[in-house]
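Objective 1b: paired records.
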Amino acid sequence: MNTGSPNDGALAYLSRGQEYALAVTIAVVTANAYYIHPIIGEVARGFGIGDGRIGIVPALNQLALALGILLLLPLGDFVSNRRLCLIFVSAQTLCLLGMVLARDFVLFTAASTVLGFFTIAPYLIPAFASKRVAPERLGQVTALLTAGVIFGILVARMGAGIIAEHADWHTVYVCAFALMAGVTAFLPVAMRSETAPRKQPATGYGALIASVFALAARHPDMRLSALIQGLNFAMFTASWLALALHLTSPQMGYGTDAVGYLAGIAAVSVISTPRLGRWADRIGARRARLVAALVQLAGIALFYPLGGSIAGLLVPLLLVNLVGPTIDVTGRMTFLALAPDIRTRLTTFYIVVMFVGGAIGSALGTAAYDTGGWAGNCAILLAMSLCVVGLALLAERRWQQALA
């Protein structure tokens, strides 16, 4: 392991093995929020509720995640990141056990919501890692950890769809619990102990939370990045929830395994995102984000005309999955290069906005499909994608003006 001093001058650089171990941890923890995507119709039928109402499960999960990040993630600037991750991952494991045992829709939704509240580790780890890598590798390592998120989503969707088709949707959560139990036991080894002293906050917990908004007020570029990613994540959730309902509808006639197999297209992101992260290191985060947003817009525009078959859907899904995560990576790069002692709190604001967007996308995606079918969902996606392009262009122009 490289033992040179990283950018905060106190902690050793992570080894490549540690970087990959953290990416795997992120993948398993992230997957919990996405098992429901391909099986959402099956879960609705299992509890005897409609397509519009089932959207409350992922929506509340993501709203709770946003609240948990707001209340818990800022502690990462002052409390051992390792200790926090161990606590949060253990709590998630218990929540998954609750989902496995729940036989009532309200109890299932409640356990899923609390699970979301404690889904902090995937968003604490990038700030942890950013303080322990060389500045010139920030984009590459951020992209690697983002690839862990993508891989977790990929495995969750494919695995859930296939398992539900050959067993049932309940078995999906039994497997999820087993994976989380394994991660809970593995994490103390994957995340090495921190030996550097932690800076203590000069004020109380309330002031610490308030400082998140104070820091956000002083960094308008970060606020713009958060808004862009909020819209980006809203598109992500709306498209996949509607896609699952669309493919398993009587008109299309596919099973949940087909949704899982189609989700395999996200594998392209696992390969492309680290490479695009290195590309963003070279040309600049804001310019790379604008290019990615334009490519994503082209993919979104093809959803409706090509949405009549799985073969047709492969084209827009390939484009969206190729560049969509890069919008997130480049957004984080705009503030993860700032002072180490504020990165976790800036990440807090960014992720809160992101998951509020995801919750809105979850509700809009299922509601739009319930009322307007696939066409209604595609119209919403196109409007949001145009907004992302416009905001990315604004951010790039502001940055160029600041440099001039």
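Objective 1b, second protein:
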Amino acid sequence: MTSLRHGHEPATDGSAAQRRRAVVSSTLGSSIEWYDFYLYGVAAATIFNHQFFPAGTSPYVGTLLAFSTYAVGFLARPLGGLVFGHFGDRVGRKKALVVTILMMGGATFLCGLLPTYAAIGIWAPLALTALRFLQGIGVGGEWGGATLMVTEQSPARRRGLFGALPQLGVAFGALTSNGLFSLISATMDERSFQAWGWRLPFLFSAVLVAIGLYIRLSLAESPAFQQLREEGKIEKKPIVTVLRQQPLTILRVAGIRVADIGNYYVWTSFVLAYAVTIGLSSNDILVPTLIVSAVSLLTIPMWGAISDRLGRRRTIMVGGVVMAALSYPFFWAVDTRNWSLILLVLLIGINLGRDACYAPQAAYFTEMFPAQVRYSGASIGPQLAAVFGGCAPLIATALAGPDFGGIAQVVGLVVVMSLVTFVAALASKETAFALTGRDAAAVPAAGGNAS
């Protein structure tokens, strides 16, 4: 087995033209993947909870069941990280990303065709769960590959900024999925929307997949991977190697990821179900979420650029503190039913908190792992965190209770997730200033590569 402690690092500073193509391809492709993933979250809180489970199920139990199928996608993401991490380190970033977009988009399209519980009984939630599982595998392999296609050919001093650009896919995905869902629900009568209108955003995924597939197929392979292949340095068992030689690094990466995933889904998915119980409409949450997603198109690259100057770990720690501080004010604002206050706390919590944690991660995780196992390392850690983070709406619903009276416990959940990320970043070594130039892609994390 190859040791990753020493050795020459492939050149990664690609040409400006290559970098532009990689940024456009990765951002658009990532946007399509996250459109698919977020769309399911909105539907889980507003449609699936009563259409795909037995009639007579209480709203609370229906929400728990719907969020359970939602969580399945996150449980599948580590498997996707393992499979596509190995695939991406062995045969190339580009080929792995072509498969992930087909898997994600195909599963989403089929969700739009599924018969409900009233039509096929228990097979409806089972089929829904199976498709969500496929979605999870696809997105589990997407994030690491999409970011690596950019960071592996970006100059070291601006890797935070360039690495943050594919992260815009999350904002684009949330914006388009929530926007289309909200638009259709607002322009159709409730009966038609519940009967068939909700299916339209899912079916529209086929168009997005066709566009994304064209973009992915026209993209050149990462120059870092090309050089590894030319030099015969492809790792035979990248998953095994990275797990044996960098287990603590993977755990730190997972910890860094917990708050941005978990808190985001509590504030945008769980709160949909909670808002309805206190007399708000789903659009009272969806519209502020749309505005926040639009602002993220500015704040994500902003925080990426800040991490190039302030450092990755400090930027992430700032985000963790902001999210913890907003844990109570967020639910207080929702309880006031004041639209402006809800928007304000979402802007602070997500754009100043969550985005500060999320934006530097592409550069940070690239710098933590050598090129031979980078797809694997940058996929496994984040997707382990996704298991907990994606279950956050389910956990929050269980903590809140049937009458949603346990919101104090949900506030505690947000605080805990924020602290996990803060401590994980504190325990990690800064990588932004360690090296500059063409050989700066793999900087040992805290404790060295064998940690």
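The chain has 20 helices and no strands. The CA atoms of residues 41 and 269 lie 6 Å apart.
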